[in-house]
Amino acid sequence: MPIRIDHKLTPQKLLPGVYRLFELSADKILSIEKTWKPQQGTPVFTVKGKYTSRGWTEWTQGFQYGSALLQFDAMGDERFLEIGRRGTVERMATHVSHIGVHDHGFNNISTYGNLLRLMREGKIPHNEDEKNFYELALKVSGAVQAARWTKIADGTGFIHSFNGPHSLFVDTIRSCRALAVAHQLGHVLMGEQDAKISLRQRLVEHAINTARHSVYYGEGRDAYDERGRTTHEAVFNTASGAFRCPNSQQGFSPFTTWTRGQAWAICGFAEQLEFFRRTGVAPVSNLHREKQVGDRRDACPTFLRAALATADHFIEHSCVDGIPMWDTGAPNLHHLGNYAAKTSDPYNQWEPVDSSAAAIAAQGLIRLGNYLTANGEMKSGVRYRQAGLTIARTLFREPYLSTDPKHQGLILHSVYHRPNGWDYIAPGQKVPNGESSMWGDYHARELGLLILREARGEVYPTFFGCVA
User: Fold this and answer.
1) Which parts of 348-406 are beta strand (E)?
2) How many separate domains does the chain show?
3) What DSSP string runs through 418-440?
4) What range defines the domain where residue 139 resides?
5) Strand arrangement of the beta sheet that strand 233-236 belongs to
6) Strands 291-293, 157-159: parallel, antiparallel or unpaired by DSSP?
């Protein structure tokens, strides 16, 4: 049974929940700012309501300071502008040149990108030196991300994950916005013998290969091919460039769907569709499978196909209130019966839900719906948009909205790494619940800002608003 979509919801009707979200958000950001010691590393997720670090890769610090910038954007309180700006200047430089991660679009668009966007929109005063500083950081970040390149058998390639050159992560589709912004700023990656490497082309090739190898379409690719499901990791033979197999780091198995990875795909593809529509230039691919446009090939149909498939699967396999389980094939789901026909229960004893996947997917569904509506697909557009608003309504109230002033998290019942057992399980509980994550809280704020700006009739926020 799919999400019970409320077709009467509007951004205006959600305003009380959005304002409540940002009211609670303010104190939580201030609490983290007051108590967090930088020498502890980066805050990642909460344990007993307090943010703690977890060494794997440094991919969440941009969400910490980016959250403060979103808070300022939404409510105009300059304390949060100062927190976000100071944190970006003092703490984010190493993330710009970090050659060991695929997360530049998370860390740096959330900080330098938000600051540049706010300046271009006139929400903070124009300062030429600051502008140049933010632009330089974004140029370098996009190029460093693009340099993590693995070439495959058909001559194209992908941005490989921190696991190594064999590894394509579905997450990275949303982090590709770093390449999009750097390209729009006129930057290129310089290679051997001064070869100029197009960041835009690398973005397109990575997105196409994500759509082909990380997303399934019900075409019999393997025995578990189900339209719209995703695999966390696609594994390639680096000697021959051939695709070898699906894999999963954070999901239950290579043949089930880790829902946060699926949410990254929904949001990432929807944003790239918006980007290429707004910039007015079709993404060009040299691959024969893409739709011919003159003497070029338009990759947008590939992006749209992936967005639609993953969105449909997410809607069909989430609970009626829009919250998914952490993995659609988790081993104990059978104990819950037809869980998708019920309201989500984060306190069930068998498998955790993942509210962070819901927050990411909700934004992607709204953006996908808006994209389709703008292109004349009214019926489909309304369905996806309203699904996103329905999820937002669930997230912005209890039991998902964290109203306890002693809890530093904003959105409860987020899951980080279930297979590794990293998530805290409270006494008396059998699965993780009641905790928050930096990415879940940040994306809930992004979702809230998207709805808030539309309700107010303000500029539609996009990641490329910092350059377009």
Assistant:
1) none
2) 1
3) TTTT-S---TT-SS--S--BHHH
4) 11-466
5) 167-169, 233-236, 243-247
6) unpaired
Q: What is the pLDDT of residues 14-62, one digit of tens each?
A: 999 999 999 999 999 999 999 999 888 899 999 999 999 987 778 999 9
Among 379, 208, 363, CA closest to 282: 208
DSSP for residue 168: E
The alpha-carbon radius of gyration of the chain (Å, integer) is 21
Does 5 reside within a domain?
A: no
CB 234 within 8 A of CB 255: no
Is residue 233 within 8 A of residue 167, CB to CB? The reply is yes
Q: Tell me the sheet residues that pair with 189.
A: 197
In this structure, what DSSP letter does residue 4 have?
Answer: -
419 CB-side CA count, 13 A: 10
Q: Has residue 1 been placed in a domain?
A: no
Phi and psi angles of residue 25, each rounded to the nearest 5 degrees, phi first: -60, -40
Residue-wise pLDDT tens digits, 66-90: 999 999 999 999 999 999 999 999 9
Shortest CA distance to 313 belongs to which of 265, 268, 345, 281? 265
Side chain identity at 284, as an amino acid letter?
V
